[in-house]
Amino acid sequence: MVGQEHNTQVLRRWLLSVPARLVHGGRRWYLRLARGMSHKQEFWALHRYLAALGAGG
């Protein structure tokens, strides 16, 4: 179980410490991720998955 706890801590840090900027334009808010972010596709895939969970409830 130690490995699972470590992975959970890494995942929390990765999701909460995202190098990004919140930008407002055209009456909408946009999250602009840093260009060099190595897990950009995974971040957006997780975002879409969580949004779908929220919409289904």
Describe the structure.
Helices cover 56% and strands 21% of the residues. The protein is built from two helices and two strands. The protein has helices spanning 2-16, 40-56, and strands at residues 20-25, 28-33. The protein has a two-stranded antiparallel sheet. The protein is globular and about 40 Å long.
Distance between the termini: 31 Å
What Rg do the Cα atoms give?
14 Å
Following the backbone from N to C, one meets helices and strands in this order, namely: HEEH
% residues in beta strands = 15-25%
What about the largest sheet? 2 strands, antiparallel
Averaging pLDDT over every residue, what do you get? 80
How many discrete structural domains? Answer: 1
How many individual helices? Answer: 2
Sheet with most strands: strand arrangement: 1-2
Shape: globular
Extract low-pLDDT stretches.
none
What is the tally of beta strands? Answer: 2
Residues in helices, as a percent range: 55-70%
Structural category: alpha+beta
